[in-house]
């Protein structure tokens, strides 16, 4: 398959180099179970294919204080309470979009943040979206960069991703540890990554912002 020639249509497993699409039942589980099993899978969106190397799980209302759903449903997070396998996109720091895959049956509110990955097709398109002389390992290293590389923004909030998350190839050693940059629930080891992969972002503890 040529560079930059992908579409967001459902792949035929007979021609996809990454195998068949994951079924909805794959996502119909708690995010902490889904997250490590997403590593090595390929996400296709906007003419770019990305192999996931780093993800973070976020739990249920009342369970996980770091989750957007912790205090229940709001207009902003309502997609997280929808069917599994959909895309929840949120805007952060007034400048970045981040993408999550919704988990568990409708009404629960759990998801997996896509934190990092390797571009495996559509490389030139990903470079054009990121702009400048960006090293390949940096194209989708971090959740905001990943969203830009895949062309994910506000309009994709609520998109059904069944058919666009493919089987991929088994990863190497999977590591687990605390989530990066969260103010609460930081001790929960729900960040998962492929050990030694250069596209995994560095761990950062949350540092409270000081008022000036």
CATH superfamily: Methylpurine-DNA glycosylase (MPG)
Strand percentage, roughly? Answer: 15-25%
Number of helices: 4
Poorly predicted tracts of residues: 1-11
**The first-level CATH class name:** Alpha Beta
Q: Which fold name corresponds to the CATH topology? A: 3-methyladenine DNA Glycosylase, Chain A
First and last CA, distance: 53 Å
Number of domains: 1
The biggest beta sheet, please?
Answer: 8 strands, antiparallel
Instruction: Provide the gyration radius in Å.
Output: 16 Å
What does this structure look like?
By secondary structure, the chain is of the alpha+beta class. It has a single domain, classed as 3-methyladenine DNA Glycosylase, Chain A. The protein contains 4 helices and 8 strands. Strands 1, 2, 3, 4, 5, 6, 7 and 8 form an 8-stranded antiparallel β-sheet that branches. A hairpin with a 6-residue loop joins strand 4 and strand 5. Helix 3 packs across helix 4.
